[in-house]
Amino acid sequence: MSFARVLRTGCAALVLACASATAQAEDAQVTIDNFTFSPQQLTVKAGTKVTWSNRDDIPHTVASPPTFRSKPMDSEDSYSFTFTTPGTYKYFCSLHPHMTGTIVVEAASSAR
Amino acid sequence: MATHDEGPSRRKVLECMTWAGTGVLWTVSGGVPAAVGLIDEAMAQEVKGFTFLQISDSHMGFDKPANPNAKGTLEEAITHVKALPARPAFMIHTGDISHLSKPAEFDDADKIIGDARLDVHYVPGEHDILDEEQGKLYRDRYGRGSRGAGWYSFDADGVHFVGLVNVVDLKAGGLGNLGAEQLAWLKDDLTARAASQPVVVFAHIPLWTVYPNWGWGTQDSEQALALLQRFGSVTVLNGHIHQVMQKVEGNVTFHTARSTAFPQPAPGTAPSPGPMKVPDEKLRTMLGIASVTFKQHEQRLAIVDMPLKS
Fold first, then answer.
1. Is the residue at B85 inside a domain?
2. What is the CATH number of domain A3-111?
3. For residue B282, how many other CB atoms are within 10 A of its CB?
């Protein structure tokens, strides 16, 4: 990757971050109870920070390769990821792959 | 922990009874499983064979209400192993040694299990590969001489043992996974072997579909079982589901062992497969290990599930 491209990507991310700040995207929560993500599907604006919290007595992870992969969350642990790029992100628990969920990220502009 | 109303003498008697043999012995003869009696009766029949133990799901580091002292119950299991009348040849551990793949958890397991002074052949559970490098810690410690993510085979007393790894590279919505590389290795490993040689396959997640809604199965296990089809005696030993289950299909006996850490509910009987809290006095009846004996020339194997308390 050239330096110019890195710079461009960096600027794009910065612009997106600013845009989401003006759109005042609110943080969103997903809880894990009984080996289930709740809500299972969540729609947010770009720039939203989504936080998963594990309420089970067993560790879980959330993974959506290559976009994000959490460390194992023990009981009461949480993990956050900020979605900057619109799209549909399917994720799962890498320990218990039958646990799946989806985050749909919409363009922040529609909120302006 | 538990404050039992029972006096110590009564408890002592109960424990002694357990290990004198009040478990049920299963034999498989001609593909038909049958409970033939109690362990002490069976042992009295002078078993001239080869016995090894299966221990599983130690979950060192687990401290939730289902069992706040998983270390203590593992120690109890090893104490019982040391007290067995006949010394087993070795142990296999079918994974989830640790709860969160922390070095201190592996250290605790090694110290306690090592006290049995038996060789231990390990395969990883999904809880053992949670380090940054997804299993490097496990492989450095337990994977010497193994291939890929930690699979291997060895022979003991004429029996061929195959340790498989089905907890790596799991896919969203899927079950346990062996993968093409491991299946190709298994094919090679079995190719030159006589169909008359007994085979024991062990892996963490069941290699038969116990309950897909909870992920209790391995998506490509059929391919492994197809490679084993020509063998006259195949025993598949798994853990993961923290309860005893057995199924016989043709020449293949499938068996899962108890955990030493905490029980899990029977399929579909709870909202999720999470750790099951049971009354304190019941906990040790749901934890334990298994003993497997081959009687030479009889093509018959006996699996004895031994709870910490009956």
1. yes
2. 2.60.40.420
3. 11
Domain count, chain B: 1
Q: What is the C-alpha separation between B211 and B206, in angstroms, rounded?
A: 10
* ipTM surpassing 0.90: no
**Rounded to two decimals, what is the model's pTM?**
0.83
CA distance A5 to A9: 6
* Residue A83 near chain B (CB below 8 Å): no
Answer for the pair B165, B220: CB distance below 8 angstroms, yes or no: no
Q: Where are the domains of chain A?
A: 3-111
CB contact under 8 A, A98 and B272: no
Hey, is the C-beta of A57 within 8 angstroms of any chain B C-beta?
yes
Residue A88 touches partner B, C-beta closer than 8 Å: no
Of A36, A59, A97, the CB nearest to B174: A97
- Residue B86, domain CATH: 3.60.21.10
pLDDT of residue B23: 38
